[in-house]
Amino acid sequence: MQNFTNIFNTASRFNPSAVLSFKPLDAPARKHLQKIYGILTIGVACTAAGCWFHVQVAQIGSFITAIMSIALLMGSMYTTDPYSDRIDPKRLAMFAGFAFLKGVSLGPLIYYSMAVDPDLLMTAFYGTLAIFACLSACAIFSRRREWLYLGSILSSVMLYMALVNLGNIFFRSNLVFNLNLYGLLLVFMGYVLLDTQVAIESFYSGYRDPIKAAGELYTDLVAIFVRAAQPALHRSTHLTYAMGLK
């Protein structure tokens, strides 16, 4: 209960100028976070470009593009000097390529959502941005290391859900599928809190790689978007067929 109380206490201290300046942190940490969110913004823009490419130019999103994106992600995470906050252009280019291919891989979901109801896509997108911004602000303005305990809890929940999802291959229960979907949405929301504070504490510990931190937050952001879009699409599709519109 104390943690939930802290969330509301943090919200009561909110003001836009504080968010833009990251005032609870010292100047080097603020600069580090600005680098992280700048790289994250580049990733989101590249993902949007990848989605557009799949929908408007060539529908090439597939398992192969997903594998290629993972390879680029692994390359962008590799560094010989994790204690430097310098942004390596080659690693940044690989991260941008990863984000673009991730967008291409998400293309089929985007194409389907536009065919069902384009408004649902925008609702999921803006909802994801709002969730991510609020949770990031909560992590930044909370006491240091307050959310780090979530690591073991979230990892355990992820393992449990993976086992349940594996078992559901044979039972094909819609209830289990929905519980897994919404449960993972909550898990990745928790990871936004965790990864934001990990990025801050890693900086103070001397580990100052902004690209790796941005990659972790980017993964959380995309996971939230996908799981926010899927339930809305399912409800819209069922409603459309129930009303006899298709």
UniProtKB/TrEMBL annotation:
<feature type="transmembrane region" description="Helical">
    <location>
        <begin position="61"/>
        <end position="80"/>
    </location>
</feature>
<dbReference type="GO" id="GO:0016020">
    <property type="term" value="C:membrane"/>
</dbReference>
<keyword id="KW-0812">Transmembrane</keyword>
<feature type="transmembrane region" description="Helical">
    <location>
        <begin position="92"/>
        <end position="114"/>
    </location>
</feature>
<feature type="transmembrane region" description="Helical">
    <location>
        <begin position="148"/>
        <end position="171"/>
    </location>
</feature>
<feature type="transmembrane region" description="Helical">
    <location>
        <begin position="36"/>
        <end position="55"/>
    </location>
</feature>
<dbReference type="Pfam" id="PF01027">
    <property type="entry name" value="Bax1-I"/>
</dbReference>
<dbReference type="InterPro" id="IPR006214">
    <property type="entry name" value="Bax_inhibitor_1-related"/>
</dbReference>
<protein>
    <submittedName>
        <fullName>Bax inhibitor 1, variant 2</fullName>
    </submittedName>
</protein>
<feature type="transmembrane region" description="Helical">
    <location>
        <begin position="177"/>
        <end position="194"/>
    </location>
</feature>
<keyword id="KW-0472">Membrane</keyword>
<comment type="similarity">
    <text>Belongs to the BI1 family.</text>
</comment>
<feature type="transmembrane region" description="Helical">
    <location>
        <begin position="120"/>
        <end position="141"/>
    </location>
</feature>
<keyword id="KW-1133">Transmembrane helix</keyword>
